[in-house]
């Protein structure tokens, strides 16, 4: 997200732009502008997720010490993208286990991302126990970036997913770095799992299972509308002019980003499915 990323990287955010709020029981959401991460506090220490950026991470570490007086034991990256992974060195010291999916870890290393690298990786999933609580990390296949995972915090039953599920807002612009097929498959898998109580995303709003189902409905309706239009021989300009998806007009950025969402699916069908070579 270019504008937001430049704002965060340039250090323009102040303490007034940071916010910590309880989601449920011992699980909290940390917000830095339009970015959100999650952390869980136990008597055995704290489990934190995406650092977001160095200044945000330094602020969060100071607040955890001040408010809870518990050491950070684990930090988990949701995926590889730098607008969520920078600042890891602010949260993690030698006593902190740094977790990531193996694809995210590989990408952080190969691209020389200026953040601390994971100390422990996993392929399909792993469960971390901390006191009487736990975090279940699961990989659902490609969806956004590399190695993007879901994290379920128990017993609060809070689900945290970054970027590939967004509640109350349209998917970002022309879906840069997204796999539309993977987004649909991964979200379907989330909905097949045991119900969660609260959903927290890396952007936009918190919500419920119903909200995630509606997000999936949007992705499927968008995909079907673009495919059907392309099968009818319509150009991208025609698709953008004709596809409206009025049931989702209440979503933030609907007017601005629907034409770009259409382009994202259209371009994916050309690049991945060779739709124009039929």
TrEMBL record:
Q: Which residues form the Metallo-beta-lactamase domain?
A: 34-203
* InterPro entries in UniProt: Metallo-B-lactamas, NDM-1-like, RibonucZ/Hydroxyglut_hydro
Q: Which domain of life is it from?
A: Bacteria
- GO BP terms in the entry: antibiotic catabolic process
What family does the Swiss-Prot or TrEMBL record give for this protein?
A: Belongs to the metallo-beta-lactamase superfamily. Class-B beta-lactamase family.
Name of the molecule in the record: MBL fold metallo-hydrolase
**From which organism does this entry originate?**
Idiomarina aquatica
């Amino acid at each position: 997200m270019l504008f937001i990323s430049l704002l965060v990287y340039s250090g323009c955010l102040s303490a007034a732009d940071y916010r910590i709020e309880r989601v449920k029981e011992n699980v909290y959401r940390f917000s830095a502008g339009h970015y959100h991460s999650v952390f869980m506090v136990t008597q055995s220490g704290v489990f934190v997720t995406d650092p977001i950026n160095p200044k945000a991470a330094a602020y969060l570490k100071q607040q955890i010490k001040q408010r809870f007086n518990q050491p950070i034991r684990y930090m988990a990256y949701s995926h590889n993208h730098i607008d969520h992974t920078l600042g890891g060195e602010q949260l993690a010291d030698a006593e902190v286990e740094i977790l990531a999916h193996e694809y995210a870890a590989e990408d952080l290393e190969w691209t020389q991302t200026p953040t601390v690298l994971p100390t422990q990786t996993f392929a399909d999933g792993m469960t971390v126990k901390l006191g009487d609580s736990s975090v279940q990390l699961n990989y659902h296949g490609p969806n956004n970036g590399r190695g993007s995972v879901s994290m379920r915090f128990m017993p609060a039953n809070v689900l945290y997913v970054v970027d590939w599920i967004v509640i109350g807002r349209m998917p970002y612009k022309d879906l840069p770095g997204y796999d539309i097929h993977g987004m649909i498959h991964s979200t379907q898998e989330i909905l097949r799992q045991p119900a969660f109580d609260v959903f927290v995303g890396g952007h936009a709003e918190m919500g419920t299972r119903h909200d995630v189902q509606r997000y999936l409905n949007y992705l499927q309706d968008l995909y079907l509308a673009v495919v059907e239009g392309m099968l009818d021989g319509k150009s991208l300009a025609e698709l953008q002019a004709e596809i409206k998806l009025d049931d989702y007009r209440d979503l933030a950025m609907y007017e601005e980003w629907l034409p770009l969402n259409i382009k994202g699916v259209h371009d994916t069908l050309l690049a991945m499915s060779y739709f124009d070579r039929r």
